[in-house]
Design brief:
Helix content is 27%, strand content 28%. It has 237 residues and is α+β, with helices and mostly antiparallel strands. A 5-stranded mixed sheet has the order 7-5-4-10-11, with helices on one face. It has a 4-stranded antiparallel sheet with strand order 1-2-3-6, with no helix packed on it. A two-stranded antiparallel ribbon has the order 8-9.
Length: 237
């Protein structure tokens, strides 16, 4: 199950604020037991919320069990859908403003090498398939973004490789070279024969370095995150 980083972040902030209040009560000699109790309850609740945001990570016994909670992709002429255990995310092809592709070794705590970041002109349609957790109803809604972003990566989305041919088909993209998704990471190795044994001698030269590309862009004006993406991405020719 994918961690809920937004819920974890809000919970952590509330825990820090509550701890700050406790410290203030202590140094100012506040003796109101009711106020102390309320703050302790808030801390306990949001510690539970924080832990629950990561519940289920890494406890799956089989790949089949893990895949149950991963995202699957489906496509039609009007939209593509990210199908997950708890909700479906429907993205209209017409709503897509830009698509970027990132290829890099995973950072600490990550499992994917490849990722699409899709910027939209309006929010996707969210279809909840399971009741919201009680704490989801009290946490603030995410801030409205100029261009909402959807991520698709090669770990969480089990049919990741179907996305590229689909955007080529439905968005009529023609400039993506063959073998674009097949980059690998590692050091270049030269092989030599020594006493009837073939040995590999690694070099510091990487087989492939990090890549950041724009695959599709309508070019609408942006003063925020999308502007920085456009500035730093490589355009495929």
């Amino acid at each position: 199950m994918k961690p809920n980083y937004l819920s974890a972040s809000y919970s952590f902030i509330i825990i820090l604020i509550s701890c700050g209040l406790l410290y203030k009560f202590y140094i100012t000699n506040v003796n109101n037991t009711f106020i102390w109790g309320i703050v302790f309850i808030v801390i306990a609740v949001f510690i539970f919320v924080f832990i629950s945001s990561f519940k289920g990570i890494g406890i799956f016994k089989t790949e089949k069990e893990a895949n149950k909670y991963k995202g699957k992709l489906s496509y039609n002429n009007d939209a593509y859908t990210v199908i997950t255990y708890s909700k479906d995310i429907v993205v209209s092809w017409n709503s897509i403003e830009a698509i970027f592709y990132i290829n890099s070794p995973p950072l600490d705590g990550e499992y994917h090498n490849k990722e699409y970041r899709i910027f939209l002109n309006n929010d996707p349609v969210i279809i909840n398939k399971r009741p919201l957790k009680w704490y989801d109803t009290i946490l603030p809604s995410p801030k409205k973004e100029e261009h909402p972003m959807i991520k698709i990566d090669d770990y969480y989305n089990i049919d990741f490789d179907t996305f590229l041919p689909s955007i080529e088909r439905f968005l009529m993209i023609k400039n993506i070279p063959l073998g674009f998704l097949n980059g690998k990471f590692g050091n270049q190795v030269d092989y030599a024969k020594k006493e009837n044994t073939v040995i590999g001698v690694p070099h510091n030269k990487l087989l492939m370095t990090t890549g950041f590309y724009v695959l599709y862009d309508k070019g609408s004006h942006s003063d925020f995150e999308l502007k920085e993406y456009r500035k730093n991405a490589t355009i495929l020719r």
